[in-house]
Every structure is written in C-alpha cells, then in structure tokens.
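Format is chain and fold; as here:
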Amino acid sequence: MRTSGCLRHARHMETPVPLAQLLQAVEAGDLTAARTAAAALQRAGAHTSQLAAEVLHELRQPLLGVKAYAQLLAEDGAAPGPLRLLLAQVERMEQIVSDFIRLSSERPASQQRLSLAAPIWAAAKHFSINPDSSRISLEVEAPEDITIQGNARLIEQLTLNLLNNARDAMAGRGRVKVVLTMEGPSPALYVADWGPGIPEELRARIFEPYITANNRGTGLGLSVCQRIAREHHARLELAPQGVIRDVPPPATVFRVLFPATDAPPTQKHRVLVVDDEIIIRMVFRDLMGKECEIIEAASGEEALDLLQQAPVDLIVTDKNLPGMSGLELAQQARRRHTDSRVILMTGYPSLVTTQQALELGVVDYLLKPFDDIREVRALLRSTLARKPAPAPLETNPAMRRVDVLEDNPAAAAQITHALSLVGLEARILTTTELAALEPPAGVVVSWDFTPAYGRKALELGKALAQGAPFVVLAEHLTMETALESLRAGAAACLPKLMSDASALSRELNRAFKRETP
C-alpha cells in the first residue's frame, strides 16, 4: 500500500468497517462522524490503528492539493467567504490526521537542545492565520532564554493543540494567553483562556481520547498533548486559575511543566505540617512526600521542638491547635528564624485572623475543607519555588517620607493627617507615573486606586516600597482584599474609613514599626 501511494488501492483491500467509515467522514468533512469512527477504530486493536495511521498519512497528499487550489482560487478573486470556510475545514481535517497519526505512532521523535520560544511563537503564528482564530485575542509571553532538550516540531504541535482547544471552547469572541516562565529550575508553559471553563464531570477525563467539552473539537488534541509531554518527560495538567495573575482570572489554565535541565541534584525541601488531626497530616504526606521531606507535629509545642533541632523551608499549620495556636506558632517561628514561611489553615476564616496573619508575615491562608487538593499542591510548589522574602530594609530613622497611592482627595487628606501625627510626611501620588527616589519609610496604597485597581495597585505599591513595608487601605475591607494583600506581602490591610485619624495613625505606626516621636 505504501509503494502504490494510491488511496483507492487501499480501499480495495479488506478495509475494516470503522476505517472505511473514518475515510468517508474525513473526505466528506464530517467531523462528528470522523470522531465517532476514529473511536471505534481505536477499539478495534493496535494492528488496525497502525493501518489507519498509514492510510491517514496517504490522505495528507489530497488534502494538500485541496488546500493549495483553494488558496490559488482566493488569489484569483473568488468569493472570499466560502473559501475561508473551505480552508478552515481543510485545516481541521489536517489536524485530525496529524493527531491520529501521533497517537498511533510508537516511535519516539529525535530531540536536541532548543529554545522553547521558537516553537511557541511558530504555533502562535500558525494559530493566528486560521480564519476561525480572527475572533480570538492572543497574547504571548515567551522569553528566548528558556531552553529544553526536545523536539521543536512536537512542541509546536503541543502548543497549537492547546491554543485550538482554547479557541474551540469559546463560541464568540474570546481571549487566550500563553506564558512561558521558570518555576524554580523547571521551564513551565501556561495556556489560559477566558472561556466557559471545563465541566467538573470532565476534568478527571479531559486527557482521554475523544473526550471533549465542545462540539467543535476532535477530542484528540489534549490526548496528543499528553503524549508529547510524556515524550519530553514533562507533566501536563490543569492548573489553578490564580497562577495567571489577571483580573478577572482565566476560566481554564493548562500547564506543561518540563523537567529541570542541566541543574545539579538539589536537596529535598523540608515541610513541617502541624495539625492535631492525623488524617490531615497523612494527606500532606501523600500529596508532597515524593518531592519533599514531610515532618509532622500534632501541636504547636511539638512543632517548636522540631524547629529547634533543624530549620524547615515551609510551615503549614492549622490555626486552631490544642494549646498554642497556629498564629502563636507562626510568631514564635519567625522570632527564631526571621525568614520562616508559614501557611495558615483554618475551617473558620475571619477578617480578624487574616489581619493577625498579615502582621505575622504569613504567606498564605488555606481554607478547610480543601476544594481541590491539586490547588493545594500547586500552592505549596509555588511557595517553595520562590525564594524567601528578604527582611524589610532598615530605613534611615531620619527618613520621614511615606508614598501614598491615592486619587481620592478626601482620603488623601485623612491619610496625610494620620501620618503627620506620627511624624511622617506623605507624598501623594495620583498616577502610575512615579518619580524615582530613594526608598521611602513606607508606602500606603489604596485598593481602590483608580489608575491601578486591586491587584494591580498591590503590585505598584510593592514595587514603590523597594523593600520597605507597605500598607493597603480598602474602602470596603473584605476577606478577598485582606487575602490578596497577604499574598502580595503587605504589612497590613486596613479599612479606609476608620473612626478617626488617630486610630489610623496608630495602625500605620504599628505597620511601619516606628518609634512614636
């Protein structure tokens, strides 16, 4: 069959019924029938799958001819609408062929050292020229200096499949974002979309062949991505929405985490889990035990004894412990090691405990029961991958300037007065165009700062502080604003409308840890 190159000859052979149905569906451009026939073909056995791969390989030639002549007709001025639809259908059939051949192949592709950015940008370009992608706003962040040992053609196909999957999930106009970054020593590729999301009942099966949440896709794309990821010893998974720091957050995020390359073997991170419930400690042991050294304690007192023996990279503690509370443990741990990182767990969240956690430098707040244990694992990994935050800068006692990001004149006047009561001078900033000066004694940033609202305001305030403490003021203080402020590293998150300027000045003075003049 290979030597003849003739599709008709292949059909005169004793072709299995599912294969004949697949060929007819592909030639007719019936994607639903093609998907159904391909599923039946896969169940028919490995020999039949190999035969299908060979026949589909032959189909590429007539598809190429159809595509080429459609492009020539477009140059001759034929009606653009029907031609655009024809080209889009041809490209979708090409994708079915490529995906099925990849799934059927048992031969690993050759690999070499390459910059990940090149195949990612190639996939973005190929995605953009598809007429159906014109309704999608595509953003790509792919620095050139991230390299892996891999196959450029396959990485391009993986990226393109993820992009097509995101596009096909959205019926109308939409947004897709690609981010290439480093997570510790490992390259990570994220593809996020602001579509309808993946139904909960499909999340556990989304990488199986022919499983799809929409009627536009083939159901093969994510299976191919998983296959390519495994060939590169990478891990493909659904990631938490919060890993892409956008407002609003994306509905779906896929992450491809590649193995660390050319990195010396590192010692396992040490994580101390403190909870009086043994089942919770077991969950963390099974969740992170393969990649971290898990140390367990049933009380705060036991945890402090363990910390006295050796430091740890992260403490995960319940708030309500017998005897010493989790907040007291965090305070004691940071007194012993100022760079101690603590994640607090609680089944009874409150604004008061969140504020206390902020003052103690707790890095995050986990709510029990956990909605998704994979999100917990992602949080632990990302926390461990980041270097501990440096200790706040020792500011010059003579430094009295506090930068205030506030565009509300009444609020700016109240903050200025409150700072003056503790001997500090406010520099009011109403835009994001900031003058470069020596680091301030502190920063006050309004959550409601119009030029950069919410999370953007936190990022701006933290950058402006240059290591000095920064305080968040919110007109409507909620758990959400307090938690976001905590995760950004704020020294405090306070209500903007306090009883009087004296109360606000006391809180600001405590946050900036200055002596009363």
Observations:
- The longest strand covers residues 174-183.
- The chain is about 45% helix and 20% strand.
- The CA atoms of residues 234 and 258 lie 4 Å apart.
